[in-house]
Amino acid sequence: MTMKLEDKHVGNGNLVGEGQPYLGEKYQANGKPVANGRGEISVKQEANGKCGMPRKSLNMYSWQEIQKHNQKADQWLVINRKVYDVTGWANKHPGGSRVLNHYAGEDATDVFRAMHLDLDIVKLYLKPLLIRELAPEEPSQERHKSSQLVEDVRELRRTLEAMNMFKVNPVFFFLHFAQVLILETLAWLIVWHFGSGWPVTIFISFLLTISQVSTVFFLQHDLGHTSIFPKSKWSRLMQKVVMGHLKGLSTCWWNHRHFQHHVKTNIYPKDPDINTDPLFVNGYLKPAQNGKKKISYINYEKQHLCFYMVGLFLLMPVYANLMSMEMMYLQKYWGEFAWVSSFYIHYFIMFGPFYGIFGTILLIFLVKFLESPWVAYVTQMSHVPMRISKEENRDWLSTQVLATCNVEQSFFNDWFTGHLNFQIEHHLFPTMPRHNYHKVAPLVRSLCAKHGLQYVNKPLLKAFGALPQGLEEICSPLDGCLL
Q1: How many secondary structure helices (H) and strands (E) does the chain include?
Q2: CA dihedral defined by 29, 32, 34, 38, rounded to 10 degrees?
Q3: Helices of type H across 75-225
Q4: Quick check: 431 and 226 in contact, CB under 8 A?
């Protein structure tokens, strides 16, 4: 869940109220917390007849009861054995109400820890939502999950924190910010000196494309995950500047989709990144549904060809822009409109004197056209060929590793993908600065091997080929979905 909340630091860092254990607290092998006397006292009082009240009055519930509260109008979730009713607060959640609804009735301890920069900032928001605790005899996670695997993942996080893997290198990100200014200034100087002929226009379009993807797009992604600044409010402000002013897209639109993608990766229909019909269908579930209902927008047997001809080049100039505009208009995000408008204004100021209004608009969309295949491959090649399924409520490690693959490390691959060639590490630890992913990867690979999970790591060209191949193979095993 992605609660990018205001930075209000209270108390000594306890998550919720007094007596709240830290999320890194040790657990027994069966998933139950190490006894601290609190649960034992309640049990002993009940056994001694000192407490004859029903179990609910003890503010303790079983997993069976919690799992019933998984609807939009009735949402409970568990964080570190504490039960929260988030129903009334879901619409106020900065990460979007759907993120909370996706975990209703489930243990959200690990996703909560993964998606938040600092636990202290959510204390005041969580405390009023606390309603229950898990009963002492209940494990700390759902019974079908491996308590040893869950504890190993939490131990790995504690190890990485001790290794300062969540510590930011300011120089790394400063150089990326500087690169935006250098490339845009260089593009302007070239036009000013050589004129606005077609060779010059094409050349500066490539310069601006590099600026838009390798710096602007990846930087706003880092800022959205609060992995650059120590205060989340600084990241939120800078993301508006980078995404709105430098890229011309809505941060709210991006975050609304992207946070859902992170918490329920490749889970249909919760992950919006795989809900791409009518143009494309992903996995076997949606093609089968469309086949049974005789729904056909295109010949899905040929959708991989459609991806090459249409999807690659229209993702950014058409789809992203239309979806961004639609959300800003429908939700009345007028502040977002202002930031996006400033993107076009600054382009008109820089290049309008050379190209005019119409020519500058063409330049903007030429850049978006060129960047689209780059963004499409980087964001989709690590997920579309991997497992796509309905909700299975797996543990955090399994959820991410089954739905994600890496691309082999090299200087070029790191630069080309914005270090998202380490998608597995990014999905497990979204708030970690990306310059540390390669240091963490061997530990994650070792953990996957210990628990029998396949850690997929591909060469870049093989990952490129797997994306359309995944789209081509989606329908073939199922009768009735070759529409």
Answers
A1: 21, 7
A2: -170
A3: 97-102, 109-115, 123-126, 147-162, 170-194, 198-210, 218-224
A4: yes
Q: How far is CA 447 from CA 150, 153, 279, 419, 441, in A?
A: 11, 8, 38, 21, 10
Q: Please state, in angstroms and rounded to a whole number, the distance separating the CA atoms of residues 409 and 211.
A: 22
Confidence bin at 264 (pLDDT 50/70/90): very high
- Contact assessment for residue 109 and residue 118, using Cβ atoms and an 8 Å cutoff: no
Q: Mark residue 19 as left, alpha or beta (left: phi above 0; alpha: psi -120 to 50; beta: remaining).
A: left
DSSP annotation of 77 reads E
Alpha-helical runs (H) found in 230-297: 232-239, 251-263, 285-292
**136 has pLDDT over 60:** yes
Q: 95-120, pLDDT tens digit by residue?
A: 889 999 999 999 999 999 999 987 88
Residue 450 is which amino acid? K
Encode pLDDT of 312-342 as tens digits.
888 899 999 999 999 999 999 999 999 999 9
